[in-house]
Amino acid sequence: PRYAALAGPGLRAKLESGRLDANAKLNWDSAAPSWSMTDGLVTLSDLKLSHANQTPATIGKLTLREISADPVARHLELGSLVLERSNLSVRRASNGRFNLQDWYVPPAAGSAIAMKDRSATAASAPWTLLAKSVEIDRLGLDYADSLIDRERRLPRLTLNAKASSVTLDPSKPASFDATATFVDGARLSARGTVRPVPLDVDAQVQVRRASLAYVDPYVESYLNLTIARGQVWSTGRLQLSSTPGGELSRIGFDGE
Prior knowledge:
By secondary structure, the protein is mainly beta. It contains two helices and twelve strands, in the order E-E-E-E-E-H-E-E-E-E-E-H-E-E.
């Protein structure tokens, strides 16, 4: 907590607790001169954030292994990233604003901090990132929407997921395997590949005991009916793709 000020004045959530451990091998080339980093290991544990008398986020443990950085090539590479035993509580108020929007307030467009960040970004090429392996182990998600009746809100879910070849380039595909388990017994799982831009998804999906009542609040404005109850059970291959402009060009499902 004593180092929370390093996040800058924009951080509005309070850092209640947390521990950071790090070590790496720094390489210095005096002839260039330049430096690089290899064999990095960073562990963040027991992190707890609070805001408005609530605890919106906790991290049991976040581990980054085999970190290497090359500032000349402006490339950062992670051998693995593992997030364990964490929780995220998302709230939407009656005015439609999410609590996450209040955690961090970026500097005003004309402020000295914003202008400095903008000039630094414009003066150099952006960094690239490759995470060879990403794993999420038991991420709990609570979502409360004040615009939806309590009995029709999504129940708490636990997410477990793995992905490989994750980058900051949205045109690069990544493989994934994810499962979301809800406290009411519903289970959603998917395994395949995804490319964000243009969108391209090819995955084997499985849905078990998914209640339609949770979907109704988001589609009732388009349907002249109310879904009182019902469940979805499904298994098959889902394919989605879009045009470069972002319009869906294909929606395919082969299954039951």
